[in-house]
Design brief:
This protein has 643 residues and is of the alpha+beta class. It contains 22 helices and 23 strands. The structure holds ligand TSJ.
């Protein structure tokens, strides 16, 4: 504790004014601290608070965290840890509690001091959440007393006050995001649920409960995984068919760092590799992933040679070793370096060496001791290698036939005039009639239209060679111009916005899911790079006399209708539901859905590959029961797949 308070004192001593300036800076440029002020930044506030409780759990003092969304989008986070220290430091006359909420970069993340391993990808902590909340209250149960403190937009509105006695310890924070700071303050339960589940998997033995108390019926879940990341792998594979009974678990440590890996092969063709550093998801990979991949490939090749399954001189590629693989890599280290475009790539090279040696040694040993599993895995990799070779040949054939990267654009494509990909966009439109409206309504200088029609292919089961031959997807591949699979090349992409425009009904959602699955499986960089969008067409058209307006939700419909009525309660407002894109005239489609000045696009992020994979697998897999269950549980998502 000494370390922590010393550090706080140093920062705090500088000047009281700096405190206010610090939090003012957060309110001036919130995006710098939480990434954005959209829904993602809004949810980030919760993660920042919860991270503190998780740090307390990592330190060994807390085993239960409760997170809830209260009516009015108030967030409550509570833990049974030691409670944030409340004693007044003689040097400063303030408590750690006050500092945590008022000093930028304070909180449980003091680098070397404090906790040995702490999260904090952005390292911003509680003070940023405080600055961006129109109110925040904290309650600390500690030393037999309940201490309370209140804030508004970062400023103290009630100093630390003892409000009662208690026989337990712990910290509870409640806050309401400042509507002046965020585009939306509406929390999504499922987003928080997925994140909390992930954290429960990553912290074996920690119970995380979550509840949504906004609706008439509360939603809730309580997550506790004794097996940690082993159960994470089981969870991801739960609707797949595993090739061996239980997952393979490996762990190891050096001074100041540790790693654990769980993996299991299934009979599918996809690779699901999810990595974390200090419990922070690293979707861009990094040194821990590099070490893992290298060691897996080496271990399988060495085993193949030793058992004679692999001929002398032959070798299996890394990708073939990862077909049908689900793996979780979790590393903990004292000074993580996050790099890359989104600071989501681990840069510490010592993690490559650590993970490499742990995986190579432990996996080699496992294969020796479990020859039946070893054979299944090696067979799988060998089959993948053969299939890849066959796919390459098929590709060559098709390329010769119709020049996939080439100059022959699909008949249906209505291309735009501009050739600079950075300035152009392509609308992939469901149905010929909507395609017609879009073609007439568009700005042909920079907007291309590609209509799609009919049922597409079940991508989950398809291998690359089948996709190549599919007449529904070939136009998409050709129009985008960047190839697919191993050879996908973003530099060749012909449009930097790929916009899926489909109806807000079940068929539309089906097409959207299929296209996203296809992009996810075969053009992954397209999704990772944020090039894919979903157009949001309006649901209602409201007419009063000569005035028409549109609405994108039931709430907006009611609001717009009231606005149009104005002071005239008898005014007749005609409300019509758009049955589909095909029903809109070209001008309406342009104004509501295509004009960059007025439209809303939803960027497809697939932030959580695990969740995406769940939807894809369940909705398109062969197992009927999980699909039925999923659709019943997520009726709203099945209609409007919300990534
Ligand atoms: F930071 C915060 F306000 F966001 C927050 C912190 C929010 C929540 C919900 C919990 C916490 C938190 C902090 N839970 N547990 C702690 N623990 C400490 O701050 C703590 C307690 C004792 C000692 C010690 O050395 O005695 C040290 C620390 C850092």
């Amino acid at each position: 504790m000494a370390d922590i308070t010393d550090k706080i004192t140093q920062e705090y001593d500088a000047s009281q004014i700096q405190v206010l300036e610090g939090l003012e800076a957060v309110r001036k440029r919130p995006g710098m601290y939480i990434g954005s002020t959209s829904a993602s930044g809004l949810h980030h506030l919760v993660y920042e608070i919860v991270d503190n409780s998780i740090d307390e759990a990592l330190a060994g003092y807390c085993d239960h965290i409760e997170v809830s969304i209260e009516p009015g989008n108030v967030i409550r986070v509570s833990d049974n840890g030691r409670g944030i220290p409340v004693d007044i430091q003689p040097q400063t006359g303030t408590s750690a509690l006050e500092v945590v909420f008022t000093v930028l970069h304070a909180g449980g993340k003091f680098g070397g001091g404090g906790y040995k391993v702490s999260g904090g990808l952005h390292g911003v902590g509680a003070s940023v959440v405080n600055a961006l909340s129109d109110w925040l209250e904290v309650e600390v149960h500690k030393g037999g007393k309940i201490h309370q403190m209140k804030f508004s937009r970062g400023e103290i509105t009630q100093g630390m006050t003892v409000i009662g006695e208690t026989d337990r310890t712990g910290t509870t924070v409640r806050f309401h995001p400042d509507p002046e700071m965020f585009e939306t303050t509406d929390y999504d339960y499922e987003t928080l649920h997925i994140r909390m589940r992930e954290q429960a998997f990553l912290n074996a033995g920690l119970r995380i409960s979550i509840a949504d108390r906004r609706g008439e019926e509360a939603l809730s879940d309580s997550m506790y995984y004794e097996g940690g990341i082993r159960e994470f792998v089981d969870y991801i594979n739960r609707n797949k068919t595993p090739l061996h009974p239980s997952c393979i678990y490996m762990s190891g440590a050096r001074t100041d760092s540790e790693c654990e890996i769980a993996l299991q092969y299934n009979d599918g063709y996809n690779e699901i590799l999810v990595s974390f550093a200090n419990n922070i998801h690293t979707p861009e990979g990094g040194m821990h992933e590099t070490g893992f991949k290298a060691a897996l490939t080496r271990a399988l090749n060495a085993y193949g040679k030793r058992t004679g399954m692999l001929k002398e001189g032959d070798s299996i590629s890394g990708e073939d070793c990862r077909e049908g693989l689900t793996a979780i890599i979790s590393v903990k280290l004292t000074e993580p370096q996050f790099e890359g475009q989104t600071k989501a790539k681990l840069g510490n090279s010592e993690m490559r060496t650590l993970v490499d040696s742990v995986v190579f040694d432990k996996l080699s040993q496992f294969l020796e001791e479990n020859p039946a599993v070893g054979k299944v895995i090696l067979d799988k990799a060998l089959t993948a290698a053969r299939a890849r070779e066959a796919a390459r040949k098929a590709r060559e054939n098709i390329r010769r036939k119709n020049g996939l990267e080439g100059f022959n654009m699909p008949d249906k494509l209505r291309d735009c005039n501009d050739r600079d990909p950075a300035l152009t966009e392509i609308y992939i439109v469901e149905g010929d009639s909507a395609g017609g409206s879009a073609t007439q309504g568009r700005d042909s200088r920079f907007q291309a239209i590609l209509p799609l029609w009919g049922k597409m292919l079940n991508v989950e089961k398809a291998r690359a060679e089948k996709v190549y031959g599919n007449d529904k997807l070939t136009p998409v591949i050709t129009a985008l111009g960047a190839g697919l699979g191993d050879e996908f090349d973003l530099n060749k992409l012909r449009y930097h916005k790929v916009i899926i425009m489909a109806d807000a009904d079940v068929d539309g959602s089906h097409i959207r899911t299929l296209l996203l699955t296809f992009f996810f499986r075969f053009m992954r960089p397209l999704i990772d790079g944020g090039y894919v969008y979903s157009a949001i067409p309006p649901l209602y058209k409201l007419t009063r006399g000569k005035t028409t307006r549109v609405a994108f939700s039931d709430e907006e419909r009611d609001r717009v209708s009231a606005e149009m009525r104005g002071d005239n309660p008898n005014a007749r407002i005609d409300i019509a539901r758009f049955k589909g894109l095909g029903e809109m005239d070209p001008h309406e489609l342009w104004e509501t859905t295509m004009n960059p000045e007025t439209r809303t696009l939803k960027k497809i992020t697939l932030e959580d590959a695990v969740h995406a994979d769940e939807i894809f697998t369940v909705l398109m897999g062969e197992k009927v029961e999980p699909r039925k269950e999923f659709i019943e549980k997520n009726a709203k998502y099945a209609v409007n797949l919300d990534y």
